[in-house]
Amino acid sequence: MPPTTTEVRQRSIATEIGDQPAANGHANGFTKERAANGVANGHLVPSEDGKRKLVGVDGFWYDVTDFIDKHPGGPIIGSFIGEDATHVFHAYGHDPKILKHRKPVGTYAMRERHPADKDFDELKKIFEERGYFETDFVWYVKKSLVVFALWMTVWFLVTQFSAWYMHYLGAFVLAFVWQQSGFIMHDFMHSQVFRTNRKKDEAGGTFFGAAMFGISAHWWQDEHIFHHGMTNVVDVANRWVDPQMWEVSWAQNEKLFPLFTTTMHYIFIKIQHITFIPVVTFIGRYEIVTDSFRREKRWQEWVGAAFHWTWMCCLLSYLPTWREVGIFYLIAASVEGIFHFQLILSHYCKAFLNIDEFHRDSWYKFQIDSNMNLNTYWFMDWYYGGLNFHIEHHLFPKMARKYLRHASPLVKEVCAKHDIEYDSQSFVEALVTTLAHLKKAGTHFTLDPR
Ligand code: HEM
């Protein structure tokens, strides 16, 4: 059974800080007051009875009161009640026919949030015409074959050699099997492969996520949809944060400070610039594996996990001693942990917004403010899964990853035209910037016990 709206939006903090979910009416990212009014912003037309839940798209209000729990994109729709969701709606590639079947219940005057918005809408059309939102199946077959070849290499190194260093070389290659599978899972769970057939995409995602990478693909998707729709957003009143930007071990932005209230948090945050690298490297993988299955109830993910641990145990059984088993997994997990930096560096030192600021800001502009690209040569795109072009991926989450590099020059042009900073740094620069940022944030942190 899929998690409920409340579970998904409150899980990140409630489970890690140990707090109870907010008791102040928060259920779907809107307060009791907002929900009761049907709409949040004064300039919007209220619903007839004042109690319906309306979402605004392209200047029309749609009543989603009975649709929230059925929405195929999950509970995030509830976070846009009473708001103009035009840009996030289109960015997610909703088929325009979806709204043709729904009768609007009112209209509102669309407010220009930023002059660049029109240009980004135009860019999307240009990219559509260029075919950047279409799937190259041959490309995916090749990617899958690479994963399979790497996987066979691991087996070969572990089963055909008795030298410990060949086994550990196998562990190193295993990290790449996990990493590359993770990227393919990412594409599937964004419906970037079959696109109009979500069931097939989810099955592919579960195979590469749970069976190969070892994490629950649906758990990841639940969090990732919020991460994309509401990147770096903090809702202090409801104790909610973009779930993929929240860790109990550090506070990377002052907007998160009110959520940290214990002496233990204080200690963690004061030393966060020192613990950052070892925690991400050595603990990262264990954390996502356990976190992803802790509350997982979907049987597909458990079947995938059973497959994953069956092949992992068979593989590990070829190693001669428990010591080698331990070191083998540690090497694989730590090398894979290094890959986690990429995603963290793309957001940690960037802008964060409180939820009300977020709903007032331009969705496109904030995607750029809250993202950083990593500069690399084209031949390293495979290593970063194309997500070194994080700005482009966040602006257009359904764009096929092989085209992200091609989309970048036009995105840069729009940013330059509107004087928006397009942040792109090398991996090392981004790491140094993030460490300095963590140190500064830690210095400013003071404990505010509640
Ligand atoms: C009037 C409001 C909305 C309606 C009627 C609606 C309807 C739908 C439908 C029918 C789908 C499945 C088909 C498809 O992907 O084209 C879908 C998917 C989705 N929706 Fe919505 N939606 C609405 C608003 C939103 C909003 C505000 C968000 C905010 C982020 C959102 C996020 C998503 C996501 C992430 C998916 C999954 C896309 C994918 O990866 O395939 N939707 N929605």
From TrEMBL:
One of its GO terms (biological process) is lipid metabolic process. The lineage of its organism: Eukaryota, Metazoa, Spiralia, Lophotrochozoa, Annelida. GO terms for molecular function: heme binding; oxidoreductase activity, acting on paired donors, with oxidation of a pair of donors resulting in the reduction of molecular oxygen to two molecules of water. InterPro entries: Cyt_B5-like_heme/steroid-bd (IPR001199), Cyt_B5-like_heme/steroid_sf (IPR036400), Cyt_B5_heme-BS (IPR018506), FA_desaturase_dom (IPR005804), Fatty_acid_desaturase (IPR012171). Gene3D superfamilies: Cytochrome b5-like heme/steroid binding domain (3.10.120.10). PROSITE patterns: CYTOCHROME_B5_1, CYTOCHROME_B5_2. This is Uncharacterized protein. PANTHER family: CYTOCHROME B5 HEME-BINDING DOMAIN-CONTAINING PROTEIN, FATTY ACID DESATURASE 2. GO terms for cellular component: membrane.
